[in-house]
Design brief:
216 residues; alpha/beta; six-stranded parallel β-sheet; 37% helix; globular; hydrolase activity
């Protein structure tokens, strides 16, 4: 069966490259160019239009999880699995909400955003040297205009109700979206924000279980 993957902010399919997806036919959705007025909900509708199946399974990481949530809200036939993400805007910690009022991301030069490696290493919790190489390569290739739009859309996301057709997987070591603010269905001990890499074996097993059972 096909399984659709939406990556995180500024990322691409490489963030899923360490997963064992031999149990399914993975389809990695590429970003489409957003309109300046797009919200997460309207952009999610554009991503849903890329999927021909009537009742697909969608896996979203971080930003991708928020989009997968919006897709699930709009279409109850969809089964969405969120990894290192929020199912509602209420799960954002207060220190991230401040960027709604102080949007520094609008003014930081793109070259600076791409070179804050120490910040990304800490926030994403990546320690393995090979995994760092993957992460830094992804950041180097990031589309800065898309990143700026996405950050604005995330900061202005208003969603207080989680649909029933989602499953949330979260790590206790997530430094970006702290686990204490989130009531996830599955907890990965020590999992970072990029636990598709540092906990790839556990995530692979869990995805296979959820997909095989279809109880998501």
């Amino acid at each position: 069966m096909k399984m659709y993957f939406i990556s995180g902010l500024g990322a691409d399919r490489r963030v899923f490259s360490l997963l064992d997806l031999s149990f399914c036919e993975p389809v990695f959705l590429d970003w489409v160019t957003p309109d300046p007025s797009d919200t997460l909900a309207t952009y999610a509708a554009k991503m849903r239009a890329l999927i021909p199946e009537e009742a697909p399974v969608i896996v979203g990481l971080s930003l991708g999880g928020m989009l997968a949530t919006e897709i699930a809200k709009a279409d109850p036939r969809v089964k969405s699995i969120l990894i290192s993400s929020n199912k509602t805007s209420n799960e954002f910690p207060s220190y991230l909400k401040m960027f709604r009022y102080f949007p520094l991301y609008k003014w930081i030069p793109g070259v600076v955003m791409k070179n804050m490696q120490s910040l990304y290493t800490y926030s994403f919790g990546v320690k393995d040297p090979e995994q760092k190489k993957i992460l830094y390569a992804i950041i180097k290739d990031a589309d800065i205009p898309f990143v700026r739009w996405a950050l604005g859309a995330i900061m202005n996301w208003e969603s207080s109700v989680a649909p029933s057709n989602i499953v949330q997987i979260h790590g206790t070591g997530d430094r970006l979206f702290r686990a204490k603010y989130i009531k996830a269905d599955y907890i990965i001990d020590g999992g970072s924000h990029t636990m598709t890499m540092d906990k790839h074996a556990e995530i692979s097993v869990l995805l296979k279980q959820l997909t095989t059972d279809r109880k998501v």
